[in-house]
Amino acid sequence: MSDNDVVLKPKTKPKVDRPKLYKIILVNDDYTPREFVVMVLKAVFRMSEETCYRVMMTAHKLGTCVVMVCAKDIAETKATEAIDLAKEAGFPLMFTTEPEE
């Protein structure tokens, strides 16, 4: 090799794993009015009236319903915000978060 030869090394990009996604789950209860659940879903999760109603009815019929799938910190923040709104109004509305499989 002479001094003018350039040796190129292949560039490697480090593989970055995507953050694990979390599900926000609405848990049905027998005390929170349907209208209030729809209002919370609209306010916290920015859903349309129709989508809120479908999510609320699915939770009502099946016991739970996945509301949203997102990053862990967003999921925990939104679930806490929704629970706090319900507590302020005196309702036991519950949202949980769990990792997506």
General description of the model:
The protein has 101 residues and is an alpha+beta fold. It contains three helices and three strands, in the order E-H-H-E-H-E. Helix 1 packs across helix 2 and helix 1 runs antiparallel to helix 3 (72-89). It is rod-shaped. The termini are far apart.
Task: List its traits.
3 helices, 101 residues, three-stranded antiparallel sheet, alpha+beta, rod-shaped, Ribosomal Protein L30, Chain: A
Write the layout of secondary structure elements.
Layout: E1 21-27, H1 34-45, H2 49-62, E2 64-71, H3 72-89, E3 94-99
Helix pairs in contact: 1-2, 1-3
**How many H/I helices?**
3
Q: Could you state the CATH homologous superfamily of the domain at 31-99?
A: Ribosomal protein L7/L12, C-terminal domain/Adaptor protein ClpS
- Overall mean pLDDT stands at 92
Structural class: alpha+beta
Q: Indicate the overall shape.
A: rod-shaped
**Low-confidence residue ranges:** none
End-to-end separation = 54 Å
The Rg value, from CA coordinates, equals: 22 Å
Helix-strand string? EHHEHE
What is the beta-strand fraction? 15-25%
Would you state the CATH class of the domain at 31-99? Alpha Beta
* Sheet with the most strands, sense and barrel status: 3 strands, antiparallel
Name of the CATH architecture of the domain at 31-99: 2-Layer Sandwich
The CATH topology of the domain at 31-99 is given as Ribosomal Protein L30, Chain: A
Strand order of the largest sheet: 2-1-3
* Extended strand count: 3
Helix coverage percent: 40-55%
